[in-house]
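Aim 2 progress update. The chain analyzed this quarter is reproduced below.
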Amino acid sequence: MKRAFVTGITGQDGSYLTELLLAKGYEVHGLVRRSSTFNRGRIEPLYLNAKGEKVPLYLHYGDLSDSGNLFALLRKIDPQEVYNLGAQSHVKVSFETPEYTSDVNAIGTVRLLEAIRQLDLDARFYQASSSELYGKTSALKQDESTPFHPRSPYGFAKLMAYWATVNYRESYGMFASNGILFNHESPRRGEGFVTRKITISLARILAGLDKELRLGNLDAKRDWGFAGDFTELIWRILQHKEADDFVIATGETHSVREFLQEAFSYKGLDWQKYVKIDPAYMRPAEVDYLCGDSAKAQRLLGWTPKVKFKELVRMMVDADIKELQSKPMARQISPNP
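Predicted structure tokens:
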């Protein structure tokens, strides 16, 4: 039985990846931070399989800022695959916490790589890189050869992590690969991200709990895919015969305005009657346009995204309406501060 170590296991990507790994017969170990709140809702349903049997899923307290703990855990677990999905993942928040974002996203990656190297583990390493590496780009589509120009502390921290992964591969012969993930969403997306903010607010407006939704730049265009599709490719990257770097994207771009239009019109509403532009949600430096070219992954790994934009938006809207209806008293606080 293969053993996998997953950082960021309680997040959107971590939960989908864990679900996939367990279905493939892995023993999965996840890194979780100690917190006063219990944030494991995404992975709680995964502890039992369809037959009601307990699965080999184990959580360990730790942090990407604590190298001693990472060394101890990796020595004990001795995984064959390490997936680094953990990060301070909110771009706007990174402008407010640049030092913390850099420590976790950049140096945290180095700590993991160095632990694998010094322990001489026979482990394949995956680094969750980001389309935010491209930032201010003039390329109509971004692929593995497109120059990087990050526009946020999140972006430049992820850029260091990307090059650290490449460097450890080239310097020490480690199997270390990057997946350059473009925006990927799902009903498990964090509530602070614009797509979930839209679908949660729509559910609340339909229920009569909110009257408006405040957002920032509606013209930003992103390549939005389904997180479940993307984690399938993440796994395939570590099954490839050699370490390499791959763009993970759909090849389509849509603006925040288009996401709003699709979500609200799906429920028969005109989004313009409810949305207010709030300067508080504007970034100091904006990334206006991102659209990925995943031809390399499609050619070498046989992967194609399955869920289309309209289906993704409607999936998220339906999920948030269902959640609000199932827990009416738990969602009385508006996502708009």
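Residues 3-185+224-248 form a domain with the Rossmann fold fold (CATH 3.40.50.720). The longest strand covers residues 124-130. These observations will guide the mutagenesis experiments scheduled for the next reporting period.
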